[in-house]
Design goal:
The protein is mainly alpha-helical. It is built from 17 helices and four strands. It has helices spanning 2-37, 44-49, 85-103, 106-109, 120-145, 151-173, 176-211, 219-243, 248-251, 256-281, 289-305, 313-318, 325-335, 337-340, 354-359, 361-370, 384-395; strands spanning 51-54, 57-59, 62-64, 67-69. The chain has a two-stranded antiparallel ribbon with strand order 1-4. Strands 2-3 form a two-stranded antiparallel ribbon. The radius of gyration is 26 Å and the shape is elongated. The chain starts with a helix and ends in a 7-residue tail after the last helix. The mean pLDDT is 89.
C-alpha cells in the first residue's frame, strides 16, 4: 500500500510540476522575446509618457500593442498583474516531487554504494546542501561582479565553472540518475530564488516608490532584468537534467559528468541563438547562427563519442542460446524480489509468481537488459551473465512454464 500511495503521489506531483513549469517557462520565454523585439515608440504621446519601447503583434484573431516604460509609468493602474506564482508553484511542486521520488527512498534512488557508501540521512543532507551552497556562491558572484565592467561575461564564466564543479561532485557522490536530477533541481532552485529574493522585491520597491511619489531608483529594474536573463539561459539545461532520467545511456556513462556538462552547454548555446534571433530581425546584431552551430556540434560530438562499442565475438558467443523460467526465476529471486516481491511492490510491480513475471516480461527485458537501469544503481549486484540470461529468455518468448 505504501508503494501504491507513493506512485500516486509521484504521478500527481509530476503532472502538477509539468503544468506549472510550462506556465513559468512560457511567460519567461515570452518576456525575453518581448524585450528583444521592442522598438522605439513612434507616437509622440507615448514618448511623452516615458515609453521606451513598443511592439505590435497579432495572435488568435486579435491585435496587441504592448508598451514598456523604462523606469516607471506616469501613473499606476488599478490592477497590476504580477508574475511570480508560476515560479513558486514550479519550485514547490518540484521539491515535493524530489522528496517523494528521491529523498524518501534515498537508500534506493540517491545512493550508489560503489561511489559513496554513506547513510541515507547523510546523503539527504548533502543533496540539500547542493541547493543552498550553489545559490550562495552564485548570488555572491552576481553581487560582486554583476555591476562591474564586462560584468555579464565575468558572471557567465564564473557560473560555468561553478556548474562544472557541482556536476563533477554530484556525479561522483550520488547515483547517476539522481546526480543529473539533483543538478537540474539545484539550478532551478536558484532560478526561483532569483525571483523570490531579487526580481519580486525589486519590483515591489519600485511600486512603493511610485505610490509614495518618490524618484524611482533604476537599479532595481537593472538587477531584476539581469537575474531574469540568467534564468532564461538556465532553462534548457534544467529541462535536459529533468528529462535525462528517462535515458539511462546518459547518466550511466562512465564519464557522465562530462555528458551532463556538455548537454547543459549545448542547451545554453542554443538558447542564446533564440534570444539573439529577435535582435537580428531588427538589425541590432549579427545573425546568431554560430551559437546554434556550437550547440549542435556539441550534441553531434556527444552522439559520436557515446556510441556503443561493438560486441566482441567471444562475448556474443558467451550469451546463452536459451534460458528456461527456472533459471530466470533464480535471478529474479536474488536480484529483484527485495523490491518487487511479497513484502514490497515498488511501482506496483511484483515478480514472485509466473503470472506476474509473464505480465511484466516486456518491462523486465527493457529495464534489465536493454537500458540496464534495474536493479536501481545495481544495488543487488546483478551480473552481465545474468542480464544476458534474462535477454535470452525473453527472446525465446518469455516462457513461464516449469
Amino acid at each position: 500500500m505504501e508503494s501504491y500511495v507513493l506512485d500516486w503521489a509521484n504521478l500527481l506531483l509530476r503532472w502538477l510540476h509539468v503544468i506549472t513549469a510550462i506556465a513559468w517557462i512560457g511567460s519567461s520565454f515570452y518576456f525575453v522575446f518581448l524585450d528583444s523585439s521592442l522598438t522605439p515608440p513612434e507616437d509622440e504621446d507615448l514618448k511623452k509618457q516615458g515609453v521606451s519601447g513598443e511592439l505590435w503583434a497579432v495572435h488568435g484573431g486579435g491585435f496587441y500593442h504592448p508598451v514598456k516604460f523604462a523606469v516607471s509609468p506616469p501613473k499606476l493602474p488599478g490592477h497590476l498583474h504580477w508574475f511570480f506564482w508560476e515560479s513558486y508553484s514550479t519550485w514547490l511542486s518540484g521539491f515535493a516531487l524530489f522528496t517523494v521520488s528521491y529523498l524518501y527512498s534515498a537508500g534506493t534512488y540517491l545512493i550508489d554504494k560503489s561511489r559513496m557508501d554513506w547513510a541515507p540521512a547523510t546523503a539527504i543532507a548533502v543533496a540539500l546542501g547542493f541547493f543552498v551552497v550553489f545559490w550562495l556562491l552564485y548570488d555572491g558572484i552576481c553581487r560582486v561582479f554583476g555591476q562591474r565592467k564586462n560584468g555579464d561575461a565575468i558572471v557567465g564564466a564564473l557560473v560555468l565553472v561553478l556548474v562544472c564543479v557541482a556536476s563533477w561532485l554530484a556525479c561522483h557522490w550520488f547515483a547517476g540518475r539522481a546526480a543529473f536530477l539533483l543538478m537540474g533541481a539545484m539550478i532551478a532552485t536558484s532560478m526561483s530564488a532569483n525571483v523570490f529574493f531579487w526580481i519580486i522585491p525589486g519590483q515591489r520597491t519600485v511600486v512603493q516608490q511610485i505610490k509614495d511619489g518618490l524618484p524611482v531608483d533604476p537599479i532595481h529594474g537593472k538587477r531584476g532584468k539581469q537575474r531574469s536573463v540568467h534564468n532564461t539561459y538556465f532553462t534548457l539545461p534544467v529541462l535536459f537534467a529533468m528529462l535525462s532520467n528517462h535515458y539511462s545511456f546518459t547518466y550511466t556513462h562512465p564519464q557522465n559528468w562530462l555528458v551532463l556538462i556538455a548537454m547543459m552547454f549545448a542547451g545554453a548555446a542554443i538558447r542564446q541563438f533564440f534570444v539573439m534571433r529577435h535582435g537580428y530581425k531588427l538589425g541590432r546584431n549579427a545573425h546568431p547562427w554560430p551559437y546554434a552551430a556550437a550547440g549542435v556540434v556539441v550534441l553531434l560530438a556527444l552522439i559520436a563519442w557515446m556510441r556503443p562499442a561493438p560486441v566482441a565475438p567471444a562475448a556474443a558467443a558467451a550469451a546463452p542460446a536459451a534460458a528456461n523460467f527456472a533459471q530466470v526465476q533464480k535471478v529474479l529471486a536474488a536480484r529483484c524480489y527485495m523490491c518487487h516481491g511479497e513484502a514490497v511492490q515498488m511501482k506496483n510491480v511484483r515478480l514472485d509468481s509466473p503470472e506476474q513475471v509473464k505480465a511484466h516480461a516486456q518491462a523486465v527485458y527493457q529495464q534489465v537488459v536493454v537500458t540496464r537501469i534495474m536493479p536501481m544503481n545495481n544495488a543487488t549486484g546483478i551480473t552481465d551473465e545474468e542480464r544476458a540470461l534474462v535477454g535470452a529468455w525473453f527472446q525465446a518468448g518469455a516462457p513461464t512454464a516449469p
